[in-house]
Design goal:
Layout (H helix, E strand, L loop, with lengths): L1 E10 L2 E10 L1 E2 L2 E2 L4 E3 L5 E3 L2 E6 L2 H11 L36
Antiparallel strand pairs: 1-2, 3-4, 5-6, 6-7
Length: about 100
């Protein structure tokens, strides 16, 4: 996945534009979908729209957790294999991350 998020603000008569581009791979395979960054710096991913994360790493960990079948069969070296993802699955529903105010 390669996605760019654009944030804009006005400050003391100046127009600020920040473009943040993410290119994410898991096990050597590009992640598909759109990631965005809010003005407070938290990140979100369109396929799980009701969650925000303090870091892109935490977001990708949650994507792996929520969609484990999309990541099964990948080895840590980026090749399709028979990697056991059972350690990534948790019982009792999805784990949520709350955004901390800064």
């Amino acid at each position: 996945m390669s996605s760019t998020s654009v944030r804009e603000a006005q400050y003391q008569g100046h127009h600020i534009v920040i473009r943040t581009t993410y290119s994410v791979e898991v096990d050597g395979v590009r992640l598909m979908g759109h990631m965005g960054v809010s003005n407070d710096g938290s990140v979100h991913y369109h396929p799980i729209p009701n969650m925000r994360f303090d870091s892109a790493i935490d977001l990708v960990k949650q994507i792996i957790y929520v969609f484990p079948d999309d990541f099964s069969g990948r080895s840590s070296m980026g090749h399709r294999g028979s990697m056991n993802m059972s350690g990534m699955k948790h019982k009792g529903g999805a784990k949520t991350h709350k955004t901390r105010k800064k």
